[in-house]
């Protein structure tokens, strides 16, 4: 793990920059979810509409709590039983969750990651960060740093080196309210 690059990535995100980094299955692109300009820049790189919403990842449960409403104890148990890990859960969004993150929904997708680089990025940044695949809309997810560079045309501020987490597919997404699978 390149500690210096991770520290630099924290500074880049705090100053409104966009980074590329490894996740559980694919290369991700991320930024400060509270920085609208950074998120808009990230969405432009991906040629993605804001209405679709974005996933947030965190190093701890405490980092996702400001963004989510917990609909029931069972919903909370479902999600926290899989964290840290490769499971993303959709919860009702709080007022703290910006519309450029939730999109045209009243929900937000969150994951407490176990990926060492992604988790450390959240720790150094000091909160949850945006995590979406480092590809343009319609392209397959980037499985290498080089592919991420090509897809995003090097328009990001920093690439954090590291290995992918070994999953063959992007993380599963489930509805916290009922446990239903939304994406395999």
Structural description of this entry:
With 184 residues, this protein is an alpha/beta fold. 30% of the residues lie in helices and 21% in strands. The protein contains seven helices and nine strands; from the N terminus they run H-E-E-H-E-H-H-E-H-E-H-E-H-E-E-E. The chain has a nine-stranded mixed sheet. A hairpin with a 5-residue loop joins strand 8 and strand 9 (181-183). Helix 1 (3-14) crosses helix 6. The relative contact order is 0.27. The model has no long low-confidence stretch (mean pLDDT 96).
Describe this structure in a few short sentences:
The chain is of the alpha/beta class and 184 residues long. It contains seven helices and nine strands; from the N terminus they run H-E-E-H-E-H-H-E-H-E-H-E-H-E-E-E. The radius of gyration is 15 Å and the shape is globular.
Count of beta strands: 9
What is the string of SSEs from the N terminus onward? HEEHEHHEHEHEHEEE
Query: Would you tell me the structural class of the helices and strands?
Result: alpha/beta
Identify low-pLDDT runs.
Answer: none
**What summary fits the major beta sheet?**
9 strands, mixed
């Amino acid at each position: 793990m390149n500690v210096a690059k991770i520290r630099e990535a924290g500074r880049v995100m705090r100053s409104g920059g966009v980074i590329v980094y490894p996740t559980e299955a694919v290369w991700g692109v991320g930024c400060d979810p509270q920085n609208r300009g950074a998120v808009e820049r990230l969405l432009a790189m991906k040629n993605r509409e804001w209405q679709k919403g974005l996933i947030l990842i965190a190093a701890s449960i405490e980092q996702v709590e400001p963004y989510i409403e917990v609909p029931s104890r069972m919903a909370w148990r479902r999600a926290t039983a899989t964290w840290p890990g490769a499971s993303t859960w959709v919860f009702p969004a709080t007022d703290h969750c910006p519309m450029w993150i939730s999109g045209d929904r009243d929900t937000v997708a969150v994951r407490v990651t176990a990926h060492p680089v992604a988790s450390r990025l959240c720790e150094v940044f000091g909160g949850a960060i945006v995590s979406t695949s480092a590809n343009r809309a319609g392209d397959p997810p980037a499985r290498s740093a080089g592919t991420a560079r090509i897809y995003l045309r090097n328009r990001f501020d920093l690439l954090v080196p590291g290995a992918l987490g070994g999953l063959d597919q992007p993380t599963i997404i489930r509805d916290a309210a009922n446990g239903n699978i939304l994406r395999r």
